[in-house]
Specification:
Helix content is 76%, strand content 1%. It is an all-alpha fold.
Length: 318
């Protein structure tokens, strides 16, 4: 237990440092924006004097580090700045859009984990036979398929031809209409998950094959334990470490891919929000969305790291 606590403590101690580094990187990159925040806030009709007064009042003339410290102070109080001439809080838009992006990401993650686990285990159990060869072809094809192109194909098939799943329209709340929410989210989640299934299924197969060749498997089978029980109870769990590692690295892809997929399927998430910010020259909005997505990626990866402890006891001795 002490090793487990030390591992968790190391991961949690890394979190503030990573968050601090991300906030500085995002702020530093956005400081090179050619968009004048005063002009974006006051509108095209603002006079030079009004813009100068706005910049002075909001500390835009201060050195970079001074502005960064002020930005951190606002961030600690939940303030990401304002956007548009109506001075709307960025945090309100992020709080509305981020849950939708996370819902899409986790649904895509769930589909990817289930699909990759089934294909990877089947390929390992029937390795070097025809099911393994078929699954290999499917994995390569899905890995080579861009999500945005697959999204268009899914819309053509399931929305325009079969008319069974929507590709646009309002997104119902999961708590009030779970079936409507699932129908609206299914196509974008599949488009997001398929390339991950292709990569992850090969990793699962390799890990499963290595475990199936270990002595404890042969001993259990020789003792009369059914092969299905050995695979489900022991082999699969011990083989999860490498796939979970890869999955943690693919979370960033899923979040980034969700931002693009949202635009294709007209979902009101972070992708649509950042597109609006870029289109309307709103640097504070772009900065807030970018920062929120980056922080979500870091937190999710920390959570995935902690899952290692739960999956395999051998990690607890590290």
């Amino acid at each position: 237990m002490s090793n487990t606590l030390r591992l968790i403590g190391r991961r949690l101690l890394q979190l503030p440092l990573m968050i601090l580094g991300i906030t500085f990187l995002v702020f530093f990159v956005m400081s090179f924006s050619q968009v004048d925040p005063a002009l974006a806030a006051l509108g095209e009709g603002a006079s030079i004097e009004d813009r100068a007064a706005y910049r002075e009042a909001h500390g835009l003339n201060d050195p970079l580090l001074v502005r960064y410290v002020a930005f951190l102070g606002g961030l600690l109080h939940g303030d990401l700045g304002t956007y548009s001439a109506r001075q709307l809080p960025v945090i309100d838009e992020v709080a509305r859009a981020l849950p939708i992006t996370l819902q899409l990401t986790f649904l895509g993650l769930l589909i990817a984990v289930i699909g990759a686990s089934l294909l990877g285990v089947a390929a390992a159990v029937w390795r070097d036979r025809w099911p393994d060869q078929v699954i290999r072809l499917v994995s390569i094809a899905s890995l080579s398929t861009p999500s945005f192109w697959l999204a268009i194909l899914l819309i053509q098939l399931f929305t325009l031809q079969l008319k069974v799943l929507p590709a646009s329209g309002p997104l119902p709340e999961f708590s009030t209409d779970p079936l409507g929410w699932l129908a609206r989210m299914t196509l974008p989640a599949i488009a997001l998950a398929v390339p991950v299934i292709g990569q992850l299924s090969r990793v699962v197969r390799t890990a499963m094959v290595e475990e199936l060749d270990r002595d404890y498997v042969r001993t259990a089978l020789g003792a009369g334990v059914p092969r299905a029980v050995v695979v489900a109870r022991n082999v699969f769990r011990n083989a999860l470490i490498t796939p979970v590692t890869v999955l943690g690295l693919r979370v960033g892809y899923l979040i980034g891919g969700a931002v693009v997929i949202e635009i294709i399927f007209a979902l009101p998430g972070m992708g649509t929000l950042i597109l609006n910010g870029i289109t309307n020259n709103e640097p504070n909005l772009v900065q807030g969305v970018t920062l929120a997505v980056a922080l979500a990626f870091v937190v999710i990866n920390i959570v995935v790291d902690l899952l290692y402890v739960l999956i395999n006891p051998r990690i607890r001795s590290v």
